[in-house]
Amino acid sequence: QVQLVEFGGGLVQTGGSLTLSCVASGRTFTDYTMGWFRQSPGKVREFVAAINWSGDETYVTDSVKGRLNISRDNTKNTVSLHMNSPKPEDTAVYYCATGPLIVMDYARRGRPIGDLFRHWGPGTQITVAS
User: Fold this and answer.
1) What is the mean pLDDT of the chain?
2) Which residue from 4, 2, 14 is spatially nearest to 124, judged by alpha carbons?
3) 3-state DSSP assignment of residue 104
């Protein structure tokens, strides 16, 4: 069983920047595609970004392209979400999650990928102040 813990949540101003990190333990990190999701009050959890096992392919949902991007450091079992010029609508609890290697193939084909993710961190709150 893999364990995930997110770090780096807090308050950020619009036009600022913030990086979230997620550290994995318990299993081989490169066995997984890694993803970030978020959930705002009163809304369902939504997919944000995913990155393949080696870090050379990413998939970012259209609503955050240009503002949020994902990276990973396999030497540190860490996946990060970088927020540049966030907007108030980016306020949410952010979760990292593990998915099978097939996630990126599904993403390229335009198939839903949210249900492929299995292990989740407890989440970290990001509040974007205008």
Assistant:
1) 95
2) 4
3) helix
Q: Please choose, from the candidates 86, 87, 90, 96, the residue with its C-alpha nearest in 3D space to the C-alpha of residue 118.
A: 96
CA–CA distance, 7 with 125 (Å, rounded to integer): 10
Q: For 68-112, how does the pLDDT look when each residue is reduced to its tens digit (9 = 90+)? A: 999 999 999 999 999 999 999 999 999 999 999 999 999 999 999
Q: Which residues of 77-94 are buried (b: 16+ CB within 10 A; e: fewer)?
A: bbbbbebeebeeebbbbb
C-alpha span between 69 and 51 (Å, rounded): 10
Q: Which amino acid is at 1?
A: Q
Per-residue CA distances from 6 to 12, 16, 42, 79 (Å): 17, 20, 22, 9
- Residue tagged 């392919």 (tokens): 57
Region 57-70 average pLDDT = 93
